């Protein structure tokens, strides 16, 4: 057996253990869920098992790097304020957005109809008190 799958399995277990130990209460929360936008959201090609394992390691490493070793510290109160700010904006209603907050950093994922809408979402989130940075991973629906 190759040592790579064992290393990957250990990294995934470590990631899960750290998340549990940190009291991972604020998991990604759906803000908007427009079925028409979701249907047009680009679907990623399926990954091979090796690619999935490598992707998990890369994501865990990126989290640790960009959050100064505090990758698992969730911020549920800030997450709720961001969600509330997005839900009151009618221009954002026709989208499919998920919000996750870690160490006052907000990660936006999902799909929007236009690039302008993605910029509006990011600008709105940046105006929420307590937000340090926004990682805009929103994609355009086809």
Protein model, in words:
This protein is of the alpha+beta class and 142 residues long. It has one domain. Helix content is 47%, strand content 20%. It is built from five helices and four strands. It has helices at residues 3-21, 35-40, 49-66, 76-87, 115-126; strands at 29-33, 96-102, 105-112, 133-140. The protein has a four-stranded mixed beta sheet. Helix 1 packs across helix 3. It is flat. The relative contact order is 0.18.
Which structural traits does this protein have?
5 helices; alpha+beta; 142 residues
Tally of contiguous helical segments? 5
Order of helices and strands: HEHHHEEHE
- Mass-distribution shape: flat
Number of domains: 1
Structural class, by secondary structure, is alpha+beta
User: Strand percentage, roughly?
Assistant: 15-25%
Low-confidence stretches: 4-25
CA-atom Rg in angstroms: 17 Å
Read across the widest sheet, the strand sequence of neighbours is: 1-2-3-4
Mean pLDDT score:
76
Describe the largest sheet: 4 strands, mixed
State the distance separating the first and last CA atoms: 42 Å
Q: Residue share in helices?
A: 40-55%
Topology:
Elements: H1 3-21, E1 29-33, H2 35-40, H3 49-66, H4 76-87, E2 96-102, E3 105-112, H5 115-126, E4 133-140
Parallel strand pairs: 3-4
Antiparallel strand pairs: 1-2, 2-3
Provide a quick synopsis of the model.
The protein is α+β, with helices and mostly antiparallel strands and 142 residues long. 47% of the residues lie in helices and 20% in strands.
